[in-house]
């Protein structure tokens, strides 16, 4: 038994969609959990047809069907596609464009994607304009009628968590007939659904909150409409083969089933930590959209519900060396890149982003996990206060 996979008809809440995975089962054995299908190829019938539509696993593995249906339902889109990583999902959108196409993206965004746009994307012929985050007037000036085909945004944006107004970006995109794509990795569909605010495409690094256990690399795209552009994105995936293995797709689905409780706990912990550190004498600034002092707080309240996410950054008094020392002092927070797992992580972000980063040198990025917030606060305080 499956629930309606046409999300437009789904009245279920995100929590129920996630916990029950839209009711997908192992039909052959009546098992509650679908199995893993490792086969790469499918037999033709004697009449030369493929009755179930599957030919070859490159983009037709049965283990993609459930997570893709769940992702489409979560984001209120018509269709979803899994990819081998968040980067391959994002890059597939750009590869579906044509050389000479103009796109606009924010200055603060996931650094590896910004680098891709600046190097390989530009070499391939994409024209990219970066605009300051939060500056709608700059965005309006940057779009070129007849040339701008795509606006790319990320909110809250990694790693300073500046916030952009999705509805305002959608309006600018529509004014020049461009698509709007939103990297929704950090907010997750639990807290924000960009399509509700006018986005055309939503992207996720499923490596993060969707999977949630730091053990799967995956990406996803969800589309509002199954239009000609989406057909091109599908062709890019089919031809390039940047897909997940069936085991990873199965693991991702298992992780997604608990996402609502993980994300809520991370949000609660993050809020408690932000409050505990905002007036700490060794802290220059806490960057967290949940704080009233955050410049993007009002917009976050408008477009996020149920929390402000599990990501924050702390600017440490004393500059880069002081920040690196605090990271070294922490015991519970693991010094590692990535985010969205059940365990808390700390990262001196400028070290990984390198030259040209808009990230301040005194910034520590925190991915807040689902541990007890008192333990995490105690660890941060001892890390900041250690001699
Ligand atoms: N988007 C954001 C906001 C990210 O943080 C990341 C990875 O850190 C990506 C995209 C890229 O995803 P992946 O590492 O799955 O390729």
Which key terms come to mind for this protein?
Aspartate Aminotransferase, domain 2, 5-stranded mixed sheet, Aspartate Aminotransferase, domain 1, single chain, 7-stranded mixed sheet, 387 residues, binds pyridoxal-5'-phosphate, 2 domains
Describe this structure as you would to a colleague.
By secondary structure, the chain is an alpha/beta fold. Helix content is 36%, strand content 15%. It has 2 domains: 255 residues, Type I PLP-dependent aspartate aminotransferase-like (Major domain) (Aspartate Aminotransferase, domain 2, 3-Layer(aba) Sandwich), CATH 3.40.640; 126 residues, Aspartate Aminotransferase, domain 1. A 7-stranded mixed sheet has the order 1-7-6-5-4-2-3, sandwiched between helices. The chain has a 5-stranded mixed sheet with strand order 8-9-12-11-10. Strand 5, helix 7 and strand 6 form a beta-alpha-beta unit. It is globular. About 1% of the residues have low confidence. The protein binds pyridoxal-5'-phosphate (PLP). The site of pyridoxal-5'-phosphate (PLP) has 15 residues, from helix 3.
Describe the SSE topology.
Layout (H helix, E strand, L loop, with lengths): L13 H7 L44 H10 L4 E5 L2 H10 L6 E5 L4 H13 L3 E5 L4 H7 L5 E7 L11 H10 L3 E5 L4 H4 L9 E5 L13 E5 L4 H13 L5 H11 L2 H19 L5 E5 L9 H7 L7 E6 L2 H11 L4 E2 L9 E4 H5 L9 E5 L5 H13 L2
Parallel strand pairs: 2-3, 2-4, 4-5, 5-6, 10-11
Antiparallel strand pairs: 1-7, 6-7, 8-9, 9-12, 11-12
Helix pairs in contact: 3-4, 10-14, 12-14
The protein binds pyridoxal-5'-phosphate.
The site of pyridoxal-5'-phosphate has 15 residues, from α3.
């Amino acid at each position: 038994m499956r629930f309606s996979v046409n999300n437009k008809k789904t009245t279920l809440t995100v929590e129920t969609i996630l916990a029950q995975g839209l009711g997908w089962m192992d039909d052959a054995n009546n098992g509650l959990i679908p199995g893993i299908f490792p086969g790469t190829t499918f037999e033709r019938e004697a009449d030369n047809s493929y009755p179930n539509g599957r030919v070859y696993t490159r983009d037709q593995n049965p283990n993609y069907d459930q997570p893709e249906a769940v992702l489409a339902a979560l984001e209120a889109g018509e269709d979803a596609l899994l990819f081998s990583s968040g980067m391959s999902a994002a890059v597939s959108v750009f590869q579906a464009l044509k050389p000479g196409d103009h796109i606009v993206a924010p200055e603060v965004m996931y650094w590896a994607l910004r680098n891709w746009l600046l190097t390989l994307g530009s070499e391939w012929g994409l024209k990219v304009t970066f605009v300051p985050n939060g500056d709608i007037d700059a965005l309006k000036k940057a779009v070129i009628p007849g040339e701008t085909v795509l606006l790319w945004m990320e909110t809250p944006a990694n790693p300073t968590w500046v916030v952009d107004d999705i509805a305002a970006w959608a309006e600018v995109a529509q004014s020049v007939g461009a698509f709007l794509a939103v990297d929704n990795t950090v907010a997750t569909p639990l807290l924000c659904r960009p399509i509700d605010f006018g986005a055309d495409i939503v992207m996720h690094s499923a490596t993060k909150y969707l999977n949630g256990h730091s053990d799967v690399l995956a990406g996803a795209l969800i589309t509002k409409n199954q239009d000609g552009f989406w057909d091109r994105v599908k062709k890019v995936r089919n031809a390039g083969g940047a897909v997940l293995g069936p085991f990873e797709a199965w693991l991702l689905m298992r992780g997604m089933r608990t996402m609502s409780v993980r994300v809520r706990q991370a949000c609660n912990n993050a809020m408690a930590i932000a409050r505990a550190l905002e007036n700490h004498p060794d802290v220059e600034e806490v960057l967290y959209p949940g704080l009233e002092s955050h410049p993007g707080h009002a917009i976050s309240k408008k477009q996020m519900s149920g929390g402000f996410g599990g990501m924050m950054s702390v600017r440490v008094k004393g500059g880069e060396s002081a920040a690196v020392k605090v990271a070294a002092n922490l015991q519970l927070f693991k010094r590692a890149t990535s985010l969205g797992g059940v365990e808390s992580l700390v990262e001196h972000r400028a070290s990984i982003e390198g030259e040209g980063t808009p990230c301040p040198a005194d910034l520590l990025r925190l991915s807040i996990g689902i541990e007890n917030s008192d333990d995490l606060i105690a660890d941060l305080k001892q890390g900041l206060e250690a001699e």
